[in-house]
Design a protein that fits this description.
The protein is an alpha+beta fold and 96 residues long. 39% of the residues lie in helices and 41% in strands. The chain has a 4-stranded antiparallel β-sheet with strand order 2-3-1-4. Helix 1 (15-32) runs antiparallel to helix 3 (70-79). The protein starts with a strand and ends with a strand.
Length: 96
């Protein structure tokens, strides 16, 4: 399994809209993508503009399918101007 770890810093005026959009994207990913095993959306309680995503996928093909999905592409296009910074890391899950 592969884990995606994504950190977003969102422009202050777009925090609420991003929170809704990323929650919808996470739900659709879990419900519509057979290769998506987990999609957690977390937020720093001390820094509301900082979001952390933890996503688990069966393999690289499942990540590619996610990145090509309609719900991801819609969310990504809608939120592009809301993002101040973004980092993405991919890890191989070794346990459990």
């Amino acid at each position: 399994m592969l884990a995606l770890v994504v950190e977003f810093r969102i422009k202050p005026e777009h925090i609420d809209a991003f929170a809704r959009a990323i929650a919808d994207n996470a739900r659709a990913s879990r419900e519509l993508e057979p290769g998506c095993r987990q999609f957690d959306v977390c937020r720093d309680p001390a820094e509301p503009a900082l979001f952390f995503l933890y996503e688990l996928y069966d393999d690289a093909a499942a990540i590619d399918a996610h990145l090509k999905s309609a719900h991801f592409l819609t969310m990504s296009a809608a939120s592009a101007d809301w993002v101040a910074s973004k980092s993405v890391k991919t890890y191989r899950r070794v346990a459990p």
